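Encode chain A's predicted structure.
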Amino acid sequence: MTFSSISFIYLYLPLAIIIFRLTPAHRRVACLTLLSWCYYLLASVPAALILAANCLLDFVLLSFLELYLARCPDKPVGYLAFAAKAVVVQILVMAYSHWSPGASLGGFVYTATLIGYLWDHSRGKAGYFRSFWDYALFTTFFAKSYLGPVVRYDRFVPQFSQLRSSATLISRGAVQFVIGLAKKVIIADGALILYQELASLPVEEYTFFSAWMLVFAAAMAIFFTISAYGDMARGLCSIFSLEVPRVIYYPYQAKSVVECVSRINMPLYDLVVEIVSGSAERIRQLRRYRHADTRELIAVLAGVVVVGIWFDPVPQVLLWAGFLFLMVLAERYLYFWLFRYIPGLLQSAVTFGLFLFSLAPLVLPQFSNTGDLISVLLGFSAQRMISDETSYYLASNYLVILLSLLFFTSLADRLTGFLSKKFPVASEWVIAVFNGSLLILTTALLV
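Encoded structure for chain A:
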């Protein structure tokens, strides 16, 4: 069972909402935790057992950490040992998931959330958990099981005392969830199909246009998949009266490579950069290269690597991260000064082109063909601009391409916001009809 399955949309989610509404207010944290674990059981039994065991063990270990810090408050060894244990367990789970697909469901989110909690606690921004249910909901809430977002203690846990259920929250969350669901089923899956069709071509048959369409389709599949799961997570959280940060915010309209990467998974990237650089205040400055020193550039590299591994833990991600970081260095030290003299739209176009080019090590099934693909992307080896096969694939997926071009920037969001302010009543009716139509269309595609 996944968020985009019929059983989740029409059976599990309505039943979960009913149970949550019927549960007394002081029991709702435990209720949401148990509902989350039921979801994991239905989605993947190994993942549910691993998460439950991990959660129970770590809650006990937190008690020992409290005793250790009471005796040795100035020694960070306890935090480091706890974080190392979490990383090792996650690596073992990833290895096990090769034999049992789905076993790592929720594992990345759990590990990143725990490490973020340990970091915040070491900085005095988080307290101890006195309730197991609070800790379990904080780390294993099912709404953020796929791609996050990674939540922080000071912004997420205080909401547990105010859990409520209302028609307004449910309707608002349902709208957000349906938008994410449509992005996943209509655009992300369509872009993935186009990418797979283009990737199946022999590398010697790539033309200049088909090579760039390959990396474009991969970029759209990445963006809309993350955006879809982020919207569904925020929608589900809103249904249960919880607020979480955005996962992604239109990275392809960023004006620098660092800003582009930082927008792909914002909570995770910010956490990694904050830990490595030692300062939360430097994150915004790093996105524009203001006064970045060597340590902070290393923090940027760490952020790039972790975000890549989070989305697709394959060896090529490390090469992609190194490839992208070379662009970061070139942008920072060679030509960043030029950006002062060109329009913002052109800056975004250049950054988007560089990001597409950086995907070359990731997009081909045969890694050994990466050099040939790069040569074609640069126009050195392409014999033709476009081939018959490419024309056929583009013609059969033209709707996905048009939707991708329409929604991969914030233009549609800005237009919707403008119309909502000018025509609030009419906008509500239009949004209701539009989302109802989206749900019907998405259901038809799923069936």
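Residues 6-164 form one domain.
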